[in-house]
Amino acid sequence: MSRVVVSVIGQDRTGIVAGISKVLAENNVNILDISQTIMDNLFAMIVLVDISNAKVDFATLKKDILFDETLDFFCQKEILFYEPSNNLIYPNSRVYYKAMERLVEKE
User: Fold this and answer.
1) Residue 65 confidence (pLDDT)
2) Please, what are the domains in the chain?
3) In this structure, is the dihedral angle defined by the CA atoms of residues 52, 107, 63 and 94, taken in order, positive or negative?
4) pTM to 2 decimals?
5) How distant is the alpha carbon of residue 98 from its chain centre?
6) DSSP string of the chain, one letter each residue
7) pLDDT band at 79 (very low <50, low <70, confident <90, very high)
């Protein structure tokens, strides 16, 4: 399984979840988990997806998801958050850089 975390932040409006879900479905990407909230008209969502059976590669999928310039999107492979023992990786740590090296080797 190849998992990706998609984060979305922006002003709340109708159709944000529908737009992202449409892009994912069109590319055969499975939503594993989703969490969203609205705080004083600010929309925030995190989606964990499986891209193992995606019709396109990660780079292309990332471009497809970034379809709305009014929202901030972040798409990151899950490996960037964890080391093999499932401990959290902190940015700029030695473990973070090792995970980045492994990610580059796999692509």
Assistant:
1) 81
2) 3-77 (3.30.70.260)
3) positive
4) 0.70
5) 20
6) --EEEEEEEEE--TTHHHHHHHHHHHTTPEEEEEEEEEETTEEEEEEEEE-TT-SS-HHHHHHHH---TTEEEEEEEGGGTB-TT-PBPPTTSHHHHHHHHHHHHH-
7) low
